[in-house]
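re the bet — no i am not wrong, look at it urself. input seq straight from the record:
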Amino acid sequence: MGNHAGVVRLMVAYALLEIALTASVPANYAKEANAALQFMTGLAESRLIGGAVAVQKAGQLVWSKGFGYASEELDVPLEDDHIYPIGSNTKFYTAVAIYQLHEKGLLNVSDAVNGYIDPADFGLDGPWCPKVHGQEELGCQEPTFKQLLQMSSGILPSDNMACGYPNTSWTPSDWLWPYRMNALNTTYGDASGATGNWLDGTASAADLLRFQELMKAPLLFAPGSQYCYCNTNFNLAGYVVERLTNMTFTNYLNEFILKPANLTNTYYWIGGQGMEPLGIRKHVVSIPGYTTTFKQGASGAPAFTVVNRIPWLEMDLSAFAGAAGAMFSDTFDLLKWYNLFMTQPEVIGLSKESIAALTQPLERIPIPGLSAFFAQGVVVEPLSSKGKKLLYTGGIWGFLAHIEYWVNSSDPSKSDAVIFFSNLNPIIPADSNGACAVQSLQNSSTISLEASACTDSPGGADMTNYVTTHLAQIFNITGNYSSS
């Protein structure tokens, strides 16, 4: 895309932003909102971030704003209510759908999934009978719905070669190498035995699973014995929802989750961009997202040089994401969803027992320095105050949708939250000592960053945790609530 022609335009735009805060900021949070504005403006003006933020204190939305551009090419400013792809945040909604069916008696989350699968949907000779690779003598394994939702089913992650984390990447010498997705076809074709195009929005969860051919693959491990982040768990859950209700996953979400919860800016779409049914697409950021590249000059910290689009595959929604990652939303609707989930679960047909089960810490996430657990469709971090924080980052096409939600256990309606939806990720070289910093475009000073912000990854660095951590500090969000 070349060096952004509007650096001067950027500086003028952000100078205007600093003139005043939005009138909706409560007076008692004006100081914090001003500090947050200065912090975010500095990052955005220096091309380190782009996106929308929202902050909730004691159950009240106290600050929100958009930074950067929804379209770099068309100079469309980002607003706080722009809609983004929210990637794996979709899993939370899918987990709720399964628990709704549990509450209705259509399934039990402790049931083996095997009995809910029609062998004919996947060309199986008989009931689904997955066996653990290298331990075939153990016979047919029976992963439960709960194990699907907590990522411990053992199902092979064909679309994510390392159970979600790069430190366990697969190689051609691994037995599971032949099961990876190594060829793509934009039509169903022979991969699914169906007809039509992946981009018209009609692909079912069964189509997706047939395309990936994982119903004929062995398991990585015995169900319940390990943790492995795998989108197929939730694609399979989506298949069961469609089969038991005789509804598309789209229609099920609309009727039983999105409409009851009044999430008017949230939708599920598995087709091509611009091919959505009339009225569904509105105020969506330009797709895909962006990277900004920083380069080291003769002196000083690396400086911004160029902005580019993220490479993407449009059929990702239908062939890979599905019930694991094909939803769109804005920061306000995602916040509304968490608030309703914690305070009015009956609106979406859930009992308090289901809420407790869905948010119970189950599988420790194997990331150094992270003391968080995968629950069921959401991540939970126990806090030193004996409380807990719900959190998730969903990513697709260069977009990152991140939420941190501090649950006030004595009064959930007074919970705190910070949300950051990002559409721009920086590519920054670290210095010889591993330190990470860039040159500010505001005043040429040096902006020091966390080491994780420096990366040579073509997708750029994830800045969401950096942003939400600082905003939580600015607004004094700690998760320490009085029990009075």
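see?? Residues 4-23, 188-195 have pLDDT under 50 and may be disordered. told u. also The chain has two domains: 7-89+263-460, 92-232. so pay up
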